[in-house]
Amino acid sequence: MNRPSQINNMGFYKTPVCKALMFIIGIPSLILNFTPKLQRYFVYSFSDVTNPLKIWKLLSSKLVFLDVTDLVCGLIILYYFRIFERRAGSRKFSSYILAMVILCTSLEVTFLFMFKFAGYDRISWQPGFQSVLMSLFVKYYLDIPRTGTTQVLGVPFSRKTLTYFMGLQIVFSEPMNAIFALCGIFMGILHRCNVFGIQQWFTIPQSVAEFFSSTLGPVFRSNPPQPLTQPMGATQEIQRQQRLELLEQQMLLAQAQGFMNQNHQRPLFRRRQAFRRRNTHNSEQNQPQAEAASSQFDTDNENQAQQHPLAPQPPEDKIVQLTDMGFSRSEVLDALSVTDNDVSMATNLLLHE
């Protein structure tokens, strides 16, 4: 197995939505912490919900953290969670954020009405971005493996432990934050289980995604990470973090390669990729030669394909999920076909080929 090049994965490469959210949430929150008189525009009460002229407060209250500690923890958690945008693609991740904003706000307003009927009609709510972050903890718990586990006084700690602690800090910083957290976790579970087809309710149209990509994309798009040219970190903690990141990359690559070797499909995948590049070059020079090369390629691989049949045609949603990450459709089809339509395996394969 070839050792993957050690890269600096700090940054927002392929995560423009998370980068935009950091600015949209962080800058207004900092301003509001120095201008308390403006904070009333970012909280709402029962009277605001029933007043059509103040319904906009439901949205404004989602865009800020009015507590400095919650702001710092929230931005760090959002930075950690940028991995979900890399895996799903910006369009799908944006659709998820939109769904959680609408669904969590609806549930929070329901709780507000319940408090009203219970006699607590003077409550002002400032849910902030907490409920959306808490919904992402469902994905974080189920999809991100534990790595670098250590024992402290017999209690296991991993790289995920700090993220959970920061989430708890937000939850218990204010009494009402626990309600907002429960709303987020509940909606995150519903979305995860796709109850009532909830995942299809909120999907950003492709045309809208392309519009924002062309207008705001250049502003929030980041350059690819560069290989590290400096020695590893000066402190033991930084070195440990870098080694764990490199180990995680090696584990993902080994998992993908093991799957490929087990199914005897990796040589065929590489030959397909090389053929596509060669055929594209030939087609620009001599179309008859390109057609002859295509026929020869199909003949050479007929026996191998019969011995190790590929997976059936992958579902369109999986194809879109990978093409949204920047891969071409032909590469996505090849990767899915040799990994039995496993999106995670196909992603690892495409990233390391």
How do the strands and helices of this protein lay out in sequence?
Elements: H1 16-34, E1 44-45, H2 46-49, H3 57-60, H4 68-80, H5 82-88, H6 90-117, E2 124-125, H7 130-143, E3 150-152, E4 155-157, H8 161-172, H9 177-193, H10 206-215, H11 217-220, H12 236-262, H13 266-285, H14 287-300, H15 302-307, H16 316-323, H17 329-338, H18 343-352
Helix pairs in contact: 1-4, 4-8, 5-6, 6-9, 7-8, 7-9, 12-18, 13-14, 13-17, 16-17, 17-18
Please, could you describe this protein's structure?
It is a single chain. The protein has two domains: 16-220, Rhomboid-like (Rhomboid-like fold); 238-352, Ubiquitin-associated (UBA) domain (Helicase, Ruva Protein, domain 3), CATH 1.10.8.10. It has helices spanning 16-34, 46-49, 57-60, 68-80, 82-88, 90-117, 130-143, 161-172, 177-193, 206-215, 217-220, 236-262, 266-285, 287-300, 302-307, 316-323, 329-338, 343-352; strands spanning 44-45, 124-125, 150-152, 155-157. Residues 1-8 and 282-286 have low confidence and may be disordered. It has a two-stranded antiparallel sheet. A two-stranded antiparallel ribbon has the order 3-4. It is mainly alpha-helical.
Specify the structural class: mainly alpha
Termini gap:
13 Å
Number of domains: 2
Spans where pLDDT lies below 50 across 5 or more residues: 1-8, 282-286
CATH architecture of the largest domain: Up-down Bundle
What is the number of strand segments?
Answer: 4
Mean pLDDT: 76
Under CATH, the homologous superfamily of the largest domain reads Rhomboid-like
- Coarse shape: globular
Query: What is the name of the CATH class of the largest domain?
Result: Mainly Alpha
Tally of alpha and pi helices: 18
Helix content: 55-70%
Proportion of β residues? under 5%
Counting copies of identical and different chains, the oligomeric state is: single chain
Strands side by side in the biggest sheet: 1-2
CATH topology of the largest domain: Rhomboid-like fold
